[in-house]
Amino acid sequence: MARTFPDVTLVRTGAVFYAAAARSASEQELHRIGIISTLGIALLMLWVFRSPRFLLLGFLSTGIGIVFALAATMLVFGKLHLLTLVFGASLIGEAVDYSIQYFVGHLGAQGQDARRSAREVRPALLVALATSLLGYAILVGVPFPALRQIACFAIAGIGAAFLSVASLLPALLTNAQRQPYRTYDRAARWLGRWQAALTRRGAWVCLALIAAAAVPGWLRLTSDDDIHLLIQRDPDLARQEAFVREAIGVENSTQFFVVKGDSTEQVLQRAETLQHKLELPIAGASLKGVQSVTQFVPSAHQQAEDRARLSKRVSADPQALRATLTDAGFRPEIAAKYVTAFETPPSDPLTVDAWLAMPWSQPYRHLWLGQVSSAGAPRMFAAIVIPTGVTSAQLPALAALADATPGIRFVDKPASVARLFATYRIDSGWWLAGALSLILMLFCVRYGVAAGVRVTLPVVCAVGITFAVYGYAGIPLNLFHWLALMLVLGVGANYAVFLREGCARQRADIGGVWVGVLLSASTTLLSFGLLGKSGMPVLRSFGMTLALGIVIAVALAPLGMPTVRHRPS
Q: Residue ranges of the Membrane transport protein MMPL domain (predicted)?
């Protein structure tokens, strides 16, 4: 088109273009961050394990989990939500933890058979798996497809990753490795000093003071589910939209009225009534304008009234009308034809179907929805009326106007999406509370009440301190903060479990377990902490929350260890 019409500039506007641009930008960032995080994880694993075999086996386990998760989700739901794709990628950070703990356990076994090492770490992995599955199982019962799909994706992926670590990796890891004594010894000594500091009486007083200081932050917490805060508009598309709006005076409004009726005539009459009301001041201010199909096709009743009014006030004296048209610049024969045509009674009024068949109706055909299905009324017709220049202060008045008029409904698409996100956010909060309760009960059954509380405390502190930080910083919570806290719960609880189970399994190996925990936290931060630097507000919310929660959870994980002092090997 540019070559054929060099003087023509093509501009575009519409929600579909913004959605495509946002999806493309998010995918590019995810790919870029994914490459950086994958390289970082690979370098970390090579540095710790000194062998590419462990790196490949770790990625193999994670890949199996993701493939199984995708297959199960597509089998059950038939499609994949974008939320599931973003949140489900957490399997990279969670599933790789299982293989890391197996590798450090095998390295610390001093020449032990790989299958025996798998049997020794299996209890810790089973507790971690049960923790994750219990939390995600709650989401299966919620009435929202996106959260149910996340649960299906996570359960299938984490379960497959665990099975691959427990059964497949021991068969592939046949050669025994020697334990890196110095690294593990240094880690064990550092862990011992840090645990001693955390379990002193003064440390518990500090934790109590932190909890007390967090309360005002919790009281300051707010939420904001406005969809506009979660997206970043493409500047080029915004410029094109402004050009289109200025050129033709048509807004790409996301607020509009849906007018329904039993017949085309009823829809047109209701739209005319609504248009007359919208021409009056709304909430103390006038709208810029209204787009309605009745501006092009009045109702038959209105057409008859208009003709009668013209006949009475304009066409009562044909000679005077002909002279007026001639003085206005019309040729005499054209003026005569106009007067003759007006004096001839029309057979039928202008109809919507006739208007739609005209080529100049194309830019405004979206105003007529035609016949639509409706519960209890199979034959319904509908049109939309778009007010332009609407301010946020006028939205309640417009909604009240629709409620007071039969057959008319006001649609505010950003508000409806915000309400949906608010519902998801509230349900996510209940999920988080329920999952924490189930995890606490599981740990109490496994370790006893006192020890179970200590093992749960790190992830509880991670969630609570994160909330307090956001409250003091004045950052309103949205759905993606809660999704990140779900991941903090699933991953952060495992750190304390691995340390507790490592103490029960073999105290001489606790340095290796701690190295594995630190490596797991580093891989998670590389996988998702980098999202905090994203230019997309959605990904930035997710990444910032996850990074803060994971750092707190791993720092406090030694609280769940037994208080009995042991010497490292």
A: 13-194, 438-557
If phi over 0 gives left and psi between -120 and 50 gives alpha, with beta otherwise, what is residue 566? beta
Q: Are 554 and 519 in contact (CB under 8 A)?
A: no
Within a 10 A sphere around the Cβ of 144, how many other Cβ atoms? 14
CA distance 466 to 548: 7
DSSP secondary structure of 215-282: HHHHHT--B---GGGG----HHHHHHHHHHHHHH-----SEEEEEEESSHHHHHHHHHHHHHHHTS-B
- Counts for the chain of helices (H) and strands (E), in that order: 21, 5
Span 89-145, pLDDT tens digits: 656 567 788 898 888 888 776 667 888 888 888 988 999 888 888 877 777 776 677
**120 sits in which H/E element:** helix 114-139
pTM over 0.85: no
The better pLDDT of the pair 234, 498 is held by 498
pLDDT band at 249 (very low <50, low <70, confident <90, very high): low
Locate the DSSP E strands across 389-514: 408-412
15 and 8 Cβ atoms separated by less than 8 Å:
no
> What Å distances lie between residue 440 and 136, 181, 210, 458, 550, CA to CA?
15, 35, 21, 12, 19
* Alpha carbon distance 409, 258 (integer Å): 5
**Is residue 380 classed as helix, strand or coil in its secondary structure?**
strand
CB 55, CB 42: distance < 8 Å: yes
Joined together, the tokens standing for residue 240 give: 């094109």
Q: How far is CA 66 from the centre of its chain?
A: 20
Rounded Cα distance between 140 and 27, Å, is 27
pLDDT at 258: 94
Q: Are 436 and 466 in contact (CB under 8 A)?
A: no
